[in-house]
Sequence to fold (845 residues):
Amino acid sequence: MSNTITIDGNTVPFEDGQTIMEAATAAGVYIPHLCHHPEFTPHGSCKLCTVNVNGRNCSACTFPAMEGQNVLNNTRELTDDRRKITQMLFVEGNHLCPGCEKTGNCQLQAVAYHLNMLDNHFPHFYPSRELDASHAEVMIDHNRCIFCTLCVRASQQKDGKDVFAISGRGLNKHLIINSQSGLLKDTDLEATDEAAHICPTGAILIKRTGYQVPIGERIYDHKQIDQVSLETEHPRHGE
Amino acid sequence: MKQFIQDLAEKNHYQATHLLQILRAIQSRYYYVPEDAIEQLAGLLQIPRTQIISVVEFYSFFHLTPRGQYELLISDSITDHMLGKIDLTGYLAKQLNVAVGAVRDDGLVSLDNTSCTGMCDQGPAGLINGYPLTLLDRTRIDLITELINQQKPLAEWPVELFHVDDNIYKPDLLLQQQIDDGSALRTAFKRGMQETLAEIDKSGLRGRGGAGYNTAWKWHLCYEGPEEDAFCEVATHNQQQRYVVCNADEGEPGTFKDRVLLNSYAHQVFEGMTLCAAIIGAQQGFLYLRGEYLHLYDKLQSVLDQRRQAGLLGNNILNEGLNFDIEICLGAGAYICGEESALIESLEGKMGIPRNRPPYPVTQGYLGKPTVVNNVETFMAAASIAVNGGGWFAGVGTEKSKGTKILSICGDCARPGIYEYPFGTSIQSVLNDCGASDVLGIQIGGPSGTFISNQEFDRKLAFEDLATGGSFIVFNNSRNILDIVNNFTHFFAHESCGFCTPCRVGTALLKKQLDKIIEGYGSAGDVVALEELCQLIKKHSHCGLGQTAANPVLTTLERYPELYQSKLKKISYEPGFDLDGALETARRMANRNDAGAHLTQVEEES
Fold:
């Protein structure tokens, strides 16, 4: 007996223990997301993957798939709301795409394009945030951090280190570095660590690699994020 | 300091779950949490320093830079404002020669605001080094200033400064008939635990924190535990660790009933917790007491001691083979910890961030084990029901809301205090009892609840009509609704844990948008934008805080749309700030102040 749910009217199979996100990805259905990454424990904080399950909003990345679920994903209403949530992330930090090395490779930017975000809609906060260029090979621009915790999780779960954490409350949330000085140079982070590459925005960058891939030849310059996401996050990816 | 931290860690058995308690001790001793203490503690507790820093930065009562030796916090509840808080804080700042939010140069005293301290019936209120100051006025402030400047230890201050009254005006079912110590447990052992759970089920008791989940069902689910345990043998099933947690993180502005229950009915609350432990099979319980109620801590500890001596707590309770004890854990200033999964995180020594659900605490709670989290009043009611039977309780109230509800009434009324009513009581009769006249409206259930206008006083207290965790704030016709909404909206932005985007950014945007309208910079479309933002926060937030943070705006916008519209300028576009004011720096630099250096705001339509 196979388990199934429906997503926007289409039948999607799932295995016990799978989340809605996992079932959707396996079936080739894209649900926008930023803090989710299939390799790490789901976090459920960005709320871009909000889907409507039998009338109730849930985060697809954390909510278990269960028989009888009627999931709405690609609706006008959800797309409008996801666009506004993305706009919130843009105004919260200082995201200046034209001057950012990550442009074209940035998931935040790519999701914004995918959701047809044409402006920031909300007033900017213009927070004053620091740059940490102390490390020989890796730099952090806190202006672009969206608190997805992917670097936190990658460092703990993949690299076996504990380089990053999120601290503070509310809008004062910020990324902190696990060293007595609070600087990246005094941690055991290496440029080859997963945590140094996982950032969906341009907050964590590898030094001396800037613009090696010219603008126009970057990941999202020719492909939409839904296509890239399904190609790279599919459970059989790489087989 | 090294020795102090070492002893502290040892006293707490090097358990990282005790991080909040350890940090409270450090903060209280050094007036901040020094960097060296963090380093040492990380080693002793074997946790990353980042966990300690994140906890310090999360809770309002912990600081990375020194506060004053006398740390004064003034309650920012709307009721404190109505009692002249702004004026008094200004006076206090002047007398003490310290700015709000700052530490005086000599390091002796610091002054700041804090979220509602649960003294709304005897405000304006504040806290000094964690202990409550009530009924603040200029005379008391003069006295406090003098005591601080003399550097008198708090123990030598006049006790009346710290006096807290219960103010119980209308006792009913629960408050009138306090049970004898141990009687609920004795009756339950005699009747049988499953039979007692059946009585609680029959009583129809629902959680008193506001959400109203069926108590018997919650206990039953916790007893059952996770699905994978359902089929294991009874012996193994009984070995499963379970926990009972009493949620005394009463942070909803305007609520103070748990303060009174823990002050005068603590035995019965602990008895309810012990009863729950006997039914679900738990050995350990926690009372999570909000940091603002530090003044109750010693008294509650002595109640626990009395119960241990009376054989009502500890090993082999009443010689029935039940082992159960209760630990009191103090919070440190975070409204979000009233959310049950955030409270559990906090009990584990972490930031109070609500968990993803499922799984729910009844199957995976404290340290991943099945956990019952109930409100103070719920445990108290359960103990009474165990003695008097389910029918006794179910005979009162409405079909869907059985029994009584204890209200904390404050604001514009003659007798602010504690009132207990059968569910189904009309708002009008509550107003008559507390002596409220010329009423504009009422905030029921605190900022996260509902604002009702004076056209709705025939509505009833009940889960199916007006649900409340106990907060009931009365406003008379001299009050300005937008001031009230503004206070509540700022409160939520301050208390948002920041985990999810819609609440973290949304509550801050909501504050901005509302300020813009109230300050007169709103134009056509701004109220629509306000409402859109509210809906977004409500629909997409991770937990109850975000889902209700827009209620103050939404419930008043529904009732008084013209009030918001009247604040808007009659032009199609208005900058969201004072355009001319923003040029002040430029004028100063150019040393000009002539007419040409000023801009008129976009011209008003004639």
